[in-house]
Amino acid sequence: MDELWRLSAREAVALLRRGAVTPLEMLDAAIARIEAVEPRINALPIRFFEAARAQARALPRPPREYPGWLAGLPIAVKDYNDVAGQLTTYGSPIFAAHRAAADDRTIATLRANGAVPLAKSNVPEFAGSHTFNPVWGVTRNPWQLGRTAGGSSGGAAAALAAREVWLANGSCLGGSLRIPASFCGVVGLRPSPGVVPRGDALPAFDSLWVDGPMARDVGDLALMLDAMAAPTPHDPLSRPVPPGGFQAALQAARPPRRVGFSADLGLRRVDPAVAAICAAAARRLADTGCAVEDAAPDFTGAIDSFQVLRALLFADVRGNLLPGERHRLNPDIAWNIEKGQALGAAEIIGAMQARHALFHRVARFFDDHDLLICPTVAVPPFAVEQRFPTEIAGEPLATYIDWMFLTFVITLTGCPALSLPCGLTADGLPVGLQLVGPPHGDAALLGMASLLERALGFTLPLLPA
């Protein structure tokens, strides 16, 4: 058991594919680890082990040539995704007893590719980047239990860091795959819109919210993406998987030729320690023969644009809750819905025009750069008792999402973006480096991330949790 939960996802799947271990043995190993560490971190509060065992027993033999076949590997599922017959609470008391009738499209794709969901990962109530809620409580960071795991895929990141599971899914609006990956020393990818099928509850033409993979390293991340990615006629943004899948990109990886680095994207202050760690990591790319320069697209207007478009999306997706359930909503979520409902046409048009202009500036940047690099988060993991940071390096912040600016302005671009662990603060907390690829450049981004991961030499330790 001890040996199985220490394996990488790739190693575990290789054993499963050749029949050296069974899905039930992998489940038992995961369950033992979950029961050992969950009382301390609270990453996977919703567990359905018997349903997982039933699926594992019925699993067919794998088509071994298919790169995304997980062959019965247990995974964690984010509590924003539906798993048939299980709770989907969104961390909200409004949905505390809600059970899904069927898998959503993301989970159905994973299950069809041999994944065995065994638990739901904890989330903030509806959205946010600190994982706490009135239904399941707070998720703690395995690196230091008094710090946040980030969010909204915080339970997923904490479960990976504590080696409770080998792979986990997440989702991202303003940074919910990348921020918890940074805070927990794992890897999270925001893929291009349309790469991963989404549930039908999300607006069909929205490109801000995507589902994506989380893992302990880039190789496992590519495996998870191969299991998640699929074209579908139910998504108007859907796109085909590259020939050979995303893991093939790691075999064909080439170093970037020219990279732009910025500690702050020209927007606002970043914690000096975070900036220094990320700048040193970016310089390591020079070891691969890459030219690293201080350069970034112009992100003027991006913060305001995202604030407006996020509020509009909240009003669209959750506005129906406000009339009858306002007293049970997180006040930050209620504020975001009301902000969206109060928007005027001029604000919405201005935000859309700013986003359009930003995309074209970014696309031109990638005409002669292979990567844009910056910190994933402007601050290190903060105390679990704090709802959100209210200042960065002495600069006051106005809203509960202002501190997430380095990820949410990248969301606006539609570019694939990945958080890669790159170092530790003086008090031993992980810091993530955000790697942004050109539009539609998911496969190339994974390849370049694998090379930088090798150059940095960061490995996830066996954490005390």
Strand content: 15-25%
For the CA atoms, what is the radius of gyration? 20 Å
The total count of strands amounts to 17
The CATH architecture: Alpha-Beta Complex
How many domains, as an integer?
A: 1
Poorly predicted runs: none
* Largest sheet: number of strands, sense, barrel closure: 11 strands, mixed
Overall outline: globular
* Average pLDDT figure: 96
Alpha-beta classification = alpha+beta
CATH domain topology = Amidase signature (AS) enzymes
Spatial sequence of strands, sheet with the most strands: 1-3-2-8-10-9-16-17-13-11-12
Number of discrete helical segments: 16
At the fourth level of CATH, the homologous superfamily is Amidase signature (AS) domain
CATH class: Alpha Beta
> In angstroms, what separates the terminal alpha carbons?
17 Å
Helix-residue proportion: 25-40%
Account of the protein in words:
This protein has one domain: Amidase signature (AS) enzymes (Alpha-Beta Complex). Helices cover 37% and strands 16% of the residues. It has 16 helices and 17 strands. α6 runs parallel beside α7. It is globular, with a radius of gyration of 20 Å. The two termini are 17 Å apart.
Short description:
The chain has 465 residues and is an alpha+beta fold. Helix content is 37%, strand content 16%.
Please specify the SSE layout and strand pairing:
Layout: H1 2-6, H2 9-17, H3 23-41, E1 46-47, H4 49-58, E2 73-78, H5 105-112, E3 115-121, E4 132-133, E5 137-138, E6 140-141, E7 144-148, H6 154-161, E8 167-172, H7 178-184, E9 187-190, E10 210-215, H8 218-228, H9 247-251, E11 258-261, H10 272-283, E12 291-294, H11 302-318, H12 322-325, H13 331-341, H14 345-365, E13 371-375, E14 391-392, E15 395-396, H15 405-413, E16 417-424, E17 430-436, H16 442-456
Parallel strand pairs: 2-3, 2-8, 11-12, 11-13
Antiparallel strand pairs: 1-3, 4-5, 6-7, 8-10, 9-10, 9-16, 13-17, 14-15, 16-17
